[in-house]
Design brief:
Helix content is about 35%, strand content about 20%. It has 13 helices and 13 strands. The strands form two sheets. Strands 3-2-1-4-5-6-7 form a seven-stranded parallel sheet, sandwiched between helices. Strands 10-9-8-11-12-13 form a six-stranded parallel sheet, with helices on both faces. Helix 9 packs across helix 12.
Length: about 350
């Protein structure tokens, strides 16, 4: 099978590694993959070493005629079976590049919101008449996409992104740079400062558990040290144990030092931060937004609570503190679940089933 994929490899390696592992795995199973991308040199070097051919083409805007022409030339010359667009820019260019060509066109969808029939721009991406299949990051996203795709014959399915447990070896994370002692009860959350991430809700809900003098809250992400979160922190009697840290490249290492991970989002697809925490044997409290209930088994590997509920989150945080002696065992079950249900091998298998079904 010959696969033409288009994506961006400009983010951190932790962010792009699950996708890179998918395409490397397809090559390892005997398929040919060309990746049209712009990316960090070290990321592209890894892809080449894995046997993936790199085509240095990436759209600078959503509708790029030069990119469409470059994609179309490559698709014609390479006689590809599958064209796979991984983000909105590449999906738009591939949608027009594949018109009239005997290649199956697949799009990737990572979020539940933002796709509407009344939005003309949606017909440049997943609602484009050239789309043959939409691969969704979670069943919650798949359900949302199904409610918006009107055209018959489009295959809509879920394939989880795979994470290899070998990427997350046991480490001792020293959080002393934040004034957090070794034996502290640390609640971690990684999220950029957006209203949908529920960070203000978390700061309010954490008040109860922070009354315990060994409890600390560590929030890491772009913009979290600004308003309104810094204002909420300053008003807290426990502000010395609330740590608002801007974006870090070593965020996975920081999370490894936590006792508990929390993702209180109001909207989500399938957050990799929760997967990464679970893979490091850290149980999680997640809201019932998006695909997060597909990750966490309530009461076994963490807790699933009602989104937007300060009371439910506060109760879960205090319950976790009371059961802190059992958290390591819950974390081990969380890690085992990621290894069993969200492995790169299962991701590769799911994509091959989708591609083969399209090719008949």
């Amino acid at each position: 099978m010959r696969i033409f994929a288009a994506s961006a490899y400009l983010d951190t390696w932790n962010s792009v590694r699950p996708e890179a592992a998918l395409f490397a795995g397809l090559v390892a199973r005997g398929h040919e993959v060309t990746m049209a991308t712009r990316g960090r040199p070290e990321h592209c070097a890894w892809l080449r070493q894995a046997g993936i051919r790199i085509l240095d083409v990436y759209p600078q805007r959503k509708l790029s005629l030069s990119t469409i022409r470059a994609y179309r030339r490559e698709l014609r010359a390479g006689r590809y079976d599958i064209a796979y667009g991984m983000n909105s820019k590449t999906i738009t260019s591939l949608a027009f590049a594949t018109i009239g060509l005997p290649v199956r066109f697949v799009t990737y969808r990572g979020t539940a919101g933002g796709l509407y029939r009344h939005d003309p721009t949606a017909y440049l991406t997943h609602l484009h008449p050239r789309v043959d299949a939409i691969c969704c990051v979670s069943k919650a996203v798949e359900q949302a996409v199904r409610s918006r795709v009107w055209r018959r014959g489009v295959v809509i399915t879920t394939v989880y992104k795979g994470h290899d447990l070998a990427w997350f070896p046991p480490v001792h994370a020293d959080l002393s740079e934040f004034g957090i002692p070794d034996q502290a009860f640390v609640i971690a959350c990684v999220a950029n400062a957006r209203p949908g991430k529920g960070l203000a809700l978390l700061l309010e809900a954490a008040d109860g558990v922070l009354q315990n003098p060994d409890a600390h809250l560590l929030i890491v992400g772009r913009g979290v040290s600004g308003k309104p979160y810094a204002v909420i922190r300053e008003a807290s009697p426990w502000k010395s144990r609330i740590h608002l840290v801007e974006h870090r490249s070593d965020v996975v290492r920081l999370v490894a030092g936590a006792s508990l991970y929390v993702q209180p989002s109001l909207r989500e697809g399938l957050p990799k931060t929760v997967i990464e925490a679970m893979a490091q044997a850290i149980p999680a409290i997640v809201s019932d937004a998006g695909g997060m209930p597909e990750l966490v088994v309530h009461g076994d590997s963490g807790w699933v609570i009602e989104r937007g509920s300060v009371g439910a989150l506060s109760d879960a945080l205090q319950a976790a503190y009371r059961q802190r002696a059992q958290l390591p065992a819950m974390g081990q079950r969380a890690r085992a679940r990621i290894g069993r249900e969200f492995s790169p091998e299962r991701t590769i298998d799911g994509h091959l089933r989708l591609f083969e079904s399209l090719l008949g």
